[in-house]
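Per reviewer request, we include the raw input and output of the structure prediction for the construct analysed in the revised manuscript.
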Amino acid sequence: MVIIGDTRDFKGDCSAVAIGKFDGIHMGHRKLLKALVTYARENRMPSVVFTFDPLPSQAFGGTDKEALLSLPERRRMFQALGVDVLLEFPFNRESASMPPETFISGIIVSGLRAKAVFCGDDISFGAGGRGDLTLLLKLAAVNSFEVHVIDKLTSGGKPVSSTRIRSALEEGRTDEAREMLGPPEI
């Protein structure tokens, strides 16, 4: 796996991209990443994970509470799942203020030359998280890329999420958290 910090370092002619924080790489994230890697291999293009470093919650004096895994742990998980390229894009005032349309056209389409984008139905991107699935689908039509929406996994009748995992850990429900996180891939 190649780790890059800027789209200028991406060398591929095209790619399949997953967009997300991936702060815990829980079972839902793994489902999405496995779909990404499978698609990319079948279509002979690199699989790319777009995430931020630091995580948005950590960027402006926040805490690392959001991160369920450290950066080295996340990197090992991405590699174990077969990701080809990990883009750890700098999260700063400039990137935080980027309009959603600019993020997709400048970073995902022009920078990573995405032919397919993988995400959950709750995707948010761009300044203030204003970009959503509806906007992504509109931008896909204009920019000629596919959108693959991966259904959420559930546990206990509710969607698996990092927020639920953090709550379970804070409340001492470690078995519930462990079920949502899944076995370590490393």
